[in-house]
Each structure stands twice: as structure tokens, then as C-alpha cells.
Amino acid sequence: MSQSTVQGANLRLARLFHGLTLEDVAAHIDKTRQYVHKIETEQIVPSEATIDAIAQLTQVEPAFFARTASAPVNEEQCHFRKQFTTRSAVKQVALAKGEMFRRLVVDLEGLLELPANTIPQIEAHALVDIELAAEACRRHWGLGLGPVQNMTRVAENAGAVVTSFKGVSREIDAYSISSARPIIVVNADDVSACRLRFDIAHELGHLVLHVGISTGDRKTEGEANRFAGAFLLPRSSFVKEFPKLRGSHLNWQGLTDMKLRWKVSKSAILYRAKQLSLISEDQYRTGVIRLNRGGEARVEKEDGLIQKEKPELFSQAVKLGFTHSRIGFDVFCRKFAVKPEIVTEFLTEEPAIVTPIQKPPLLFEGSNVVQLGDRRRRA
Hints:
The chain has 379 residues and is α/β, with parallel strands linked by helices. It has three domains: 1-68, Orthogonal Bundle (434 Repressor (Amino-terminal Domain)); 127-305; 313-378, no CATH class. 48% of the residues lie in helices and 7% in strands. It has a four-stranded mixed beta sheet, with helices on both faces. A two-stranded parallel sheet has the order 2-6. Residues 353-371 have low confidence and may be disordered.
């Protein structure tokens, strides 16, 4: 690789993916912070030895730094769900992980056919429009009006690819990237299965309602939350199943039963009941206070009874692509110009269990593209 082909943005991406500072990289290559900054801003051309050293530190191949990112993501495409006080450094690491994952997915699509993107784009100007949009998506994906058994699988069957943060602060819940191949990233450190399901529904809301719109403000976040509540707890079903009050008091056993059936937190059920005027503002506030005093503000007592969902599509794609190639996993990862450690961060199973096979599975006739969508449908 010619040193002059180094793209500074790629070096910065690899650095931020690991949460490394300019000083961290500088110490590794025995240079100054200013020197690394000049490489990233393409003011200087580093030596081949320097490129190799940085590649080793950031677990990529030297060729990674020369690659041109396909279809760069702009601000309107990225829907970032975070607390308003999130530190910039935390956000940068999360965005770097998402961008690295997006590039891996783009490369994988050169090897496999992933499920078609069937996420509709719907304009919603009022709360009733958001309710109707959520119901329309359920009809579009054939989900009926009952509980969604696996929210992650719904998103992936609709054409999104879901992955998880690892080692990123809880200041960030999730974010999504609107593109031909939508990406949804959730925080793997969250211990609540209900919260993770709600996060995915929230990001689907952005992908449905806010394509081409900058998000992150209270209005768009509120709209995505409304979509998530309406999608997970449709109006007609919710009104029928919400547990009747005991006088003026909430029916907590009924709320627990409903949570376990719908896999939605008690706090979200209460908020949905308030939205649909099934309980008063005072009753809702009383319920929230009880949850907080019982230590259930973030993790509720029954959360351990609901199994956390795992993203499947990316792991299946890597496994199928790897076995189809009939090469070692480390050699397979070089197709993406990264080390195996980068790819395995996004896998839900160890690559060691994957064994190359002799006959390529499910190919287009006369093509070398694997039909992963057909494979998932048959499964």
C-alpha cells in the first residue's frame, strides 16, 4: 500500500472504535499527539512502519486505512437516542462502532443477499398519525394485534441489521442509521430485555417516521417513543387487556401478568395507559413513585424472567459467508481489511464453531451470491 493513499478518516474511525485518544496512539508509535492529528487530517504522509504499528494497535489490516467508505452517512441519516447530557467522547465511540459495523454489512452484501428492506416511510403530523403508522407496520409485516414474541427478529426480517454496543457507557441507549440497509445499534450493557425491545421499536419508529429529518430533540424522540408504545402495545388490544383498577388503585398483579405476556416493562404499560386515558395523571404518578421506591426505576423485578433477545442476521451472514468461502476465519476477515477481533465483537456466537463446508449453500443460479433471506425464511 502506498503511504499517500492513507485516508485520515479511516485512521480516526479505527482509533475511536477502541475508544483510543490521540495520545494513546502517539504513545504506541512513539510520536506526539500533534503528529497523529496531522495524519488524521492528512497534513503529513506516515511511513509504512507507522501505518503497520497503528494497524496492529487498532486491530485492522494496513489496507483498511486506504479504503474509501461507500455511501458516507450524513447527519440526517443518523438517529441517536441518548441522554441530553451525553459526553461527546462517549457519542464518538458509539458512532465509530456503528460506522464500522455498517461497513462490514456493506461488504457482506457483496457476498450474500440479505432480507429485503421492507420498512415503510410514513409521514405523521399528529399523535393519531403515529398510532396509525404503528398499526400499518404491524399489518405490513403480518404481525396481527397480539404480543410481539421477538422484536429483534421483526426488525431483521424487515431488512434492518441489529447489533449491540459493547463497553459503551449507559449514557447511550441506542441509535439507528437510515440507509438502503438500515442499521439499529442497542446497548448490550442494558440488563433489561424489555428496555432492549423498546429501544428497537423506538429506532424502528425513527426509520419509519424520520427519514431525512434531523432527530435527537424532544419532539422527534417523543414521536419515536409514541411509535414504540403503539407498536408493542396496539390500542385495541391494550384497551381490552389493561388490568381493571381496584377501586382507584392500580392492579399490580395484573400489570405483572401483562408485562410477562407482552414483554413490555410495567413503566411503559403505565405510560401507555396514561396516553390512552385509561388511568389519570395522578394514578400514573403514583405508579411511577411505587416503582422507584421499590428499586424498579431501571430494572424491574420480573426482568430476569424474560429472556434477552440476540441479534441474529449479522452472525448468520458471517457464518454463511465464511462456510461458503471455505477459508480460515482470519483469512475471511481480511476481505473486510480488519482483524478477526473486530468482526467477533459483533457476533453472538464464537466463530470457532463454524466449520467450512464442501458444497456452497443456497446460491443464485449462475451467481456467487448466497441467498440468506431464503435461508432465514426456510428456518
